[in-house]
């Protein structure tokens, strides 16, 4: 895998994290215990920081980046992802904040300043515009994005289960190494 420092700051990788050989990570990134980063993922913590929580998985081809500070936005937009989040294949997460137990469907785009509360399902291909707040317990889909419906109890349970499935999968990959 390619892990590079930027301005003297290197990614910090937690215990039992799996990072595929083809992933690239630069700069101020912290990845917590049992997370997994799958093939061809690019994470760039250069002009702001990136945080990835415990048991969170970032699937193949996803791109994670941030926005620098400016006069208008003195903190810029870091990227903060909580625990037990599933980021599906080929997602774009840019300068946003994701809580815990979220599924970001394949090909979704989440833009600067968006805040996704805990227990949210973002459908495949959804575009989350800048600064939107996605309310806990709902399914969001589409472009333009809409709050489609409340999640059922079993769908909420699946959000956590999806993350646990990926913990098991990454443990199998780690055992092969
Ligand atoms: C959201 C999802 C779970 C569908 O759930 P579902 O139970 O079939 O959805 P519903 O039947 O309740 O659909 C609700 C509405 O949203 C629409 N819809 C569902 N998924 C949609 C999507 N991704 N984009 C746009 N509209 C979508 C449905 O067509 C339906 O529209 P209608 O009310 O006009 O008929 C599924 O489409 C999805 O996006 N899954 C993501 C899977 C994924 O990416 N996993 C990560 C990789 S491992």
From TrEMBL:
Gene3D superfamilies: Hexapeptide repeat proteins. InterPro entries: LbH_gamma_CA-like (IPR047324), Transf_Hexapept/Carb_Anhydrase (IPR050484), Trimer_LpxA-like_sf (IPR011004). Signal peptide: none annotated. It comes from the Bacteria. Pfam families: DCTN5. PANTHER family: DYNACTIN SUBUNIT P25, PROTEIN YRDA. This is Gamma carbonic anhydrase family protein.
């Amino acid at each position: 895998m390619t892990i590079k420092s930027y301005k003297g700051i290197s990614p910090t990788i937690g215990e039992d994290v799996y990072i595929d050989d083809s992933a690239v990570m630069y700069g101020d990134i912290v990845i917590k215990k049992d997370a997994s980063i799958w093939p061809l993922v690019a994470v760039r913590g250069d002009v702001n920081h990136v945080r990835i929580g415990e048991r969170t998985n970032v699937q193949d081809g996803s791109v994670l980046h941030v926005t620098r500070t400016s006069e208008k936005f003195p903190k810029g937009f870091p990227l903060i992802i909580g625990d037990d989040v599933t980021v599906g294949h080929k997602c774009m997460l840019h300068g946003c904040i994701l809580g815990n137990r979220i599924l970001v469907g394949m090909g979704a785009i989440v833009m600067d300043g968006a805040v996704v509360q805990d227990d949210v399902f973002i459908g495949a291909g959804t575009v989350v515009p800048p600064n939107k707040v996605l309310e806990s317990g709902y399914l969001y889909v589409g472009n333009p994005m809409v709050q489609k419906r409340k999640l059922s109890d079993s769908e909420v349970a699946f959000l956590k289960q999806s993350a646990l499935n990926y913990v098991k999968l990454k443990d199998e990959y780690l055992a092969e190494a």
